[in-house]
UniProtKB/TrEMBL annotation:
Ligase keyword on record: yes
Gene3D superfamilies in alphabetical order: HUPs, Tyrosyl-Transfer RNA Synthetase
SUPFAM superfamilies: Nucleotidylyl transferase
UniProt name for this protein: Tryptophan--tRNA ligase
Any one cellular-component term (Gene Ontology): cytosol
Alphabetized InterPro entries for the sequence: aa-tRNA-synth_Ic, Rossmann-like_a/b/a_fold, Trp-tRNA-ligase, Trp-tRNA_synthetase
EC number: 6.1.1.2
GO molecular function ontology, one term from the record: tryptophan-tRNA ligase activity
Keyword Metal-binding found: no
Top-rank taxon, per record: Bacteria
Source organism: Candidatus Dojkabacteria bacterium HGW-Dojkabacteria-1
């Protein structure tokens, strides 16, 4: 039986539900980009979570975004030679099988307590109109991660609860059947990030474009959103201001990052400096978006398709090998 030698250490995914926001870049992509250069980091793998998009969209609505998300990853600095990139639906059967085994280890009540589900329920979904897939979402996420036996998962703060469920499922499985899965940890640069919407309403998300910096948008639109963004009165601390600073630090060069630091010092000393802060952030953002969009325009669809097919085979081999371990541990291999 062939053994894959692509042992995954860092693993993450993004749903193809529309253009990426700068929050996706900061929360999920940047940690992998930053660590990919470090010698001691093992193999990294990212994927387009097209099956997860099925929770709130039809496949034909998201299919055309799949290649786009891969282009986004690469244009944000993911090194194609260092990273494996695949599309989740390459592994539909393997995911479905692990889902089946893991679903036995979690109760309906536990699933109903997941914060992301509770949030959807607040937004109008309820037991009579929400699909079972929505509630099963965290199990599918655990299957993605555990099939690759990944140790680290870079995600934003909104996904931390899902990683916790993945750990619980892995722990329960290991306890019951023997040590098959490593317990994955959240990977972030500092504490997990939550970028607020620039309008101040909730988190920045593709689903609320008015407060989001969409990487593909005409740059002028994004710069205008920064100009009008919520911040804070002199001396005051706010989540909106923290998010702006995080964006500024992400897009800024060293000089701009230093400027942001000294502007923030003056802010806490009581000076009115929000206009100045937004100016520095805009300079960095304009350069960043320009470089991103140029790089993205240079990428060819045929190269992307070739890459995801080759890497999809590797991910599938890993998944099959994990399932063999799982079945053996559970005693499911009678024949
Ligand atoms: P999604 O676009 O919901 O598929 O999210 C993809 C990744 O981006 C996940 O790791 C999220 O945690 C991260 N992410 C999405 N929105 C934000 C946000 N506002 N702040 C930080 N990370 C985020
Ligand atoms: N649930 C994540 C999101 O909505 C996407 C995702 C699916 C993911 N499976 C994953 C992220 C596995 C990391 C690892 O953003």
């Amino acid at each position: 039986m062939e053994n894959t030698d692509y042992k995954v250490q860092v693993f993450t995914g993004i749903r193809p539900s529309g253009g990426l926001t700068i929050a996706n870049a900061i929360g999920a992509v940047n940690p992998i980009v930053k660590i990919q250069e470090e010698e001691e980091v093992g193999n990294t793998m990212v994927f387009v979570a097209d099956l997860h998009a099925l929770t709130d969209a039809e496949p034909k609505e998201t299919q055309s975004n799949i290649v786009d998300v891969v282009k986004d990853y690469i244009s944000l600095g993911l090194d194609v030679n260092r990273n494996r990139i695949f599309v989740q639906s390459f592994l539909t059967q393997e995911i479905a099988e692990l889902n089946l085994y893991l679903s036995r280890l979690v109760t309906i009540a536990e699933l109903m307590r997941v914060p992301t589900l509770k949030e959807k329920i607040k937004k109008g979904q309820n037991e009579s109109n929400a699909s079972a897939l929505l509630a099963m979402y965290p199990i599918m996420m655990a299957s993605d991660i555990l099939l690759q036996k990944s140790e680290y998962v870079p995600v934003g703060e909104d996904q931390v609860a899902h990683i916790e469920i993945t750990r619980v499922l892995a722990q329960k499985f290991n306890k019951k059947y023997g040590n098959v899965f490593p317990l994955p940890k959240v990977l972030s640069l500092g504490k997990p990030v939550r970028i607020k919407s620039l309008t101040g309403n909730g988190k920045m998300s593709k689903t609320d474009p008015s407060g989001a910096i969409l990487l593909d948008d005409p740059i002028e639109i994004s710069l205008n959103k920064v100009k009008r963004a919520q911040s804070a009165f002199a001396k005051e601390k706010s989540e909106s201001l923290d998010s702006l600073v995080l964006i500024g630090e992400f897009v800024g060069n060293e000089k701009e990052r230093e400027e942001i630091l000294s502007i923030m010092k003056r802010h806490y000393d009581g000076e009115n400096v929000m206009g100045e802060l937004k100016g520095v952030i805009s300079t960095g953002l304009e350069r960043f978006l320009k470089e991103f969009q140029e790089k993205k325009a240079s990428l060819k669809e045929e190269d992307i398709l070739k890459k995801v097919k080759i890497d999809g085979d590797i991910a599938r081999e890993n998944a099959k090998e994990t399932l063999r371990d799982v079945r053996k541990a559970m005693g499911l291999e009678y024949f």
